[in-house]
Design a protein that fits this description.
Blueprint (H helix, E strand, L loop, with lengths): L3 E9 L2 H11 L3 E8 L4 E8 L2 E8 L14 E9 L2 H10 L8 E2 L6 E6 L5 E6 L1
Parallel strand pairs: 1-4, 5-8
Antiparallel strand pairs: 1-5, 2-3, 3-4, 6-7, 7-8
Length: 127
């Protein structure tokens, strides 16, 4: 069912410090930097060796992570699939609930979230 890891999304507590760390210290390249005024949030798309790997987000006063995708720290782990509806069907048949399908406003990709047994947020992205 799974094809590959799509990206790793991280919500940081200090955007400039984290941007410096991932780009200057770790050497990731900036693919795109978007300020989303409606959320007062930056989204920094980073590449490693020419591959898109990290989304770095800033949000005003992010809470400590209880378990959901909008808290500071590792946001979610995303996997690519070729047929999102079929993948959702397989998850649902296995008793795993999925969120309603959404469309990413920046990429146009369809995606959904679900959780692992410990509540870690996981995402499927149709490519």
């Amino acid at each position: 069912m799974l094809h590959s890891v799509h990206h790793i999304a991280i919500i940081c507590s200090d955007y400039e410090r984290s941007k410096h760390f991932y780009t200057e210290v770790l050497g990731m390249e900036i693919l795109a930097e978007t300020f989303r005024s409606e959320r007062n949030s930056y989204k920094l798309d980073l590449m490693l060796n020419g591959r898109y790997v990290v989304e770095l987000f800033s949000f005003p006063d992010p809470p400590e992570r209880p378990s959901y995708p909008e808290a500071r720290g590792l946001r979610h782990l995303a996997f690519t699939v070729h047929d999102l509806d079929a993948a959702i069907g397989r998850l649902n048949e296995a008793g795993i609930a999925t969120e309603p399908v959404r469309i990413d406003g920046l990429t146009g990709h369809r995606f959904t979230f679900f959780a692992d047994p410990d509540g870690l947020p996981l995402e499927l992205v149709e490519v």
